[in-house]
Design goal:
Layout: E1 6-12, E2 21-26, E3 29-33, E4 49-52, H1 55-59, E5 64-68, H2 74-77, H3 80-83, E6 91-93, H4 95-107, E7 116-118, E8 124-127, E9 130-136, E10 145-150, E11 155-158, H5 176-185, E12 189-193, H6 206-217, E13 223-227, H7 233-245, E14 249-253, H8 255-267, H9 280-283, E15 291-295, H10 305-310, E16 323-327, H11 336-348, E17 352-354, H12 370-380, E18 384-388, H13 392-405, E19 419-424, E20 427-433, E21 438-442, E22 445-446, H14 451-463, E23 465-472, E24 479-488, H15 497-516, H16 522-541, E25 546-553
Helix pairs in contact: 4-8, 5-12, 6-7, 12-13, 15-16
The structure holds zinc ion (2 copies).
Residues 71, 73, 139, 161 line the site of one zinc ion.
Length: 554
């Protein structure tokens, strides 16, 4: 009998940013690590979020023994509400991660169907034939863990997102000792975060941001409004601690920030000195130099609290020249324009605005740079190395680092989503493919926006549309009324009467030609009208709107 092999199937997170999801499979057991979402690019008109295609999991639902979460970032937990019906197994995560999952499930009214099981760093628990151990790591959210997964073939380490912060805020350093011990025990394969694999050196400590923020609060006589990622609990903690130090009261605004702070305080991840936190209404009565507002909106999100403050839609806060606004965050690629809009508007209102482009030390990354990645590789000493969490360039850079540290080139494997990696005690190779890809979510519709719908949306967005309505006689297809031409996003009809008249003439000529050539089929007539109009428009004004002929019969 052939010896069972272990299968590792990434369904997201490789050669792309976001929607991290990795499947581990042995015999009849499947363990899923993370279940994240991605964000739409500029071409995906109207799409709210992107989730991994989990067809493979729904087909094998009865074999899924558990979903283990490394941390509470959207790219690791965001798809859970959408795939919960496919993965009805228990969900394991640390306290804060599960608190965030719960908020998400409440929003989707799904709390009843999830079986959430809390884990702590150091815990070992069984998921089918896998034995999983959680290891504490530093990241830009509290309560992040790496996973050691003991399988019948050997031990795997899946780092999740991490960095090594020797002077962290609010938690210990990444548990390097444990990584070293596991390395000594023998690790078959390491799957590690590649986000910053191109960056030399070490990722600066979270504490360096505290020093910068301290300087901005010191002696400042303005009201301070600060924003960061709601999930960056450590940053929020630093702001609160510094506020207390400099005699300021703190108000929190913005739903995700309020949720995050509430959950973190309850779980003990944020400590608020007594008499520091106040309602935003109460804050207003205090002198400017005693106010600090922590708000959402670091990515320029429309309708976030900072956005509403900037554009005058916030009930309590109006921006004036007596404000210092601090954006303590990086701009996620794709959000440059929205962030820029907010900064411009805040400046226009007279506020002083500090952001990363003018003050680099206002943010640090939560992901390990080259020296940290090498340290993990050197401690874990894996037989095989599989870079994850990154685009091809990041995966390649990470692969070179592994080789530099001593992993032989033929034991490094760069995978892709849907490609099955088969791992034996002494072998690694790609063995087949499974369905994988992206599913687009628009409103409550999951997957009903496919490539055809997207192509239409792109066409409509770029060229607009033209509807040609006409009534034809049932007997001989002669024109009874119309053609009427209605346009949207193409030309303003009232100012383009000549063009519209000409288009109408084109349609009438086409209908005549159809009659002469005995073309009676309406599909064929519509096609002729379409062709005639699009070649006319192309010739006359070099534009190609979507053309929709509609025939009514009389
Ligand atoms: Zn993360
Ligand atoms: Zn991530």
């Amino acid at each position: 009998m052939a010896v069972e092999k272990l299968k590792i199937i990434p369904l997201g997170g490789l050669n792309e940013v976001g929607k991290n999801l990795t499947v581990y499979e042995y015999g009849n057991d499947i363990l899923v690590v993370d279940c994240g979402l991605g964000f739409p690019d500029g071409e995906m008109y109207g799409v709210d979020v992107v989730i991994p295609d989990v067809t493979y999991l729904s087909r094998n639902a009865d074999r899924i023994r558990g979903l283990v979460l490394t941390h509470g970032h959207e790219d690791h937990i965001g798809a859970i509400p959408y795939v919960l019906k496919d993965i009805s197994a228990p969900i394991y995560g640390t306290a804060l991660t599960l608190a965030l999952v719960k908020y998400k499930l409440e929003e989707h009214r799904l709390t009843d169907i999830a079986d959430l099981r809390e884990i702590k760093p150091g815990d070992r628990f069984s998921v089918g034939c896998f034995e999983v151990e959680a290891i504490h790591v530093n990241h830009s959210i509290a309560c992040a863990v790496a996973l050691a997964i003991r399988t019948p073939v050997g031990m795997l380490i899946h780092t999740g997102d991490f960095k090594i912060d020797t002077t962290p805020v609010g938690c210990p350093m990444t548990d390097l000792t444990r990584f070293g011990e596991l390395g000594r025990e023998g690790v078959l394969a390491l799957l590690s975060d590649s986000t910053n694999a191109e960056r030399k050196g070490f990722s600066p400590s979270e504490r360096t941001v505290g020093t910068t923020l301290d300087g901005l609060l010191e002696g400042c006589d303005k009201r301070i409004i600060a924003t960061t990622f709601a999930s960056n609990v450590y940053r929020v903690q630093q702001l609160i601690t510094l506020a207390a130090k400099h005699g300021r009261k703190v108000a929190i605004t913005g739903r995700s920030m309020e949720n995050m702070v509430a959950a973190s305080v309850e779980l003990g991840y944020i400590e608020i000195p007594e008499n520091t936190l106040v309602e935003i209404n109460k804050l207003k009565g205090l002198p400017k130099e005693q106010q600090l507002i922590i708000t959402t909106g670091s990515q320029g999100e429309a309708m976030s609290a900072l956005y509403r403050m900037a554009f005058g839609g916030h009930k309590q806060i109006e921006i004036t020249a007596a404000d210092r606004v601090i954006l303590s965050a990086s701009t996620v690629p794709g959000n440059e324009k929205t962030v820029s809009r907010i900064i411009n508007e805040l400046l226009r209102k007279g506020a002083e605005v500090l952001y990363r482009d003018v003050l680099g030390s206002l943010h640090v990354s939560g992901h390990a740079c080259q020296e940290e990645l090498k340290m993990i590789l050197a401690l874990v000493k894996p037989r095989y190395f599989i870079p994850i969490h990154g685009e091809q360039r990041h995966l390649r850079s990470h692969a070179s680092l592994a080789v530099e540290v001593g992993v032989p080139t033929n034991r490094v494997l760069i995978g892709d989503i849907g490609r099955v990696i088969e791992l034996g005690k002494k072998s690694i190779h790609i063995a087949g493919v499974v369905q994988a890809g992206r599913v687009l979510v628009d409103g409550t519709g999951i997957g009903d926006v496919g490539s055809v719908v997207l192509r239409d949306r792109k066409h409509l967005a770029e060229d607009g549309m033209l509807v040609v309505a006409m009534t034809l006689s049932r007997e001989d297809n002669s024109l009874i009324s119309g053609p009427d031409i209605i346009s949207r996003g193409f030309v303003y009809v009232r100012e383009s009467e000549d063009l519209i008249d000409e288009l109408r003439m084109q349609v009438i000529d086409t209908l005549d030609a159809c009659q002469e050539n005995d073309i009676r089929n309406w599909t064929a007539i519509k096609a002729s009208v379409k062709t005639a109009l699009s070649s006319y428009l192309q010739k006359q004004i070099k534009r190609s709107p979507m053309i929709l002929p509609i025939i009514m019969e009389n």
